[in-house]
Specification:
mainly beta; Ubiquitin-like (UB roll); 12% helix; 119 residues
């Protein structure tokens, strides 16, 4: 199926836990990142700020193993259904969606990012 990448050559990717169906994170991918994801079975994304492809967990070890990739009806958004190792959010939470719009924390902090991302 052809993916409708945006004018910058990117597509929105939603990462979803395969078992719980919990939304873990939202990121971007370019064609190469999607192809690497399909080829290796692990989630790859494109960092807009760093202008490079990155493998989820390359620094933290908190990888995403792909179970299935879904595409929406307009072919402009992907869902990576994954088995997540460790936390999905760089802030230490299991999901990037760990708080309500009013600021109430509803997620679980499962690691200390200062220890995981120490330089």
């Amino acid at each position: 199926m052809d993916i409708n990448f945006d004018k910058n050559g990117l597509v929105t990717v939603v990462a979803q836990d395969w078992e719980t169906k919990k939304i873990l994170m939202v990121a971007w991918a370019d064609r190469e990142a999607v192809e690497m994801t399909q080829k290796t079975g692990y989630a790859y994304y494109f960092s807009r700020s760093r202008r490079k492809i990155w493998k989820k967990g390359e620094e933290s070890g908190h990888i995403q193993r792909i179970v299935r990739i879904l595409i929406d009806c307009d072919c402009d958004t992907l869902v990576y259904q994954v088995c997540q190792t460790g936390g999905a959010c760089h802030t230490g939470y299991d999901s990037c969606f760990y708080r309500t719009i009013d600021g109430e924390v509803v997620g679980d902090k499962i690691f200390d990012p200062n220890k995981v991302y120490a330089n």
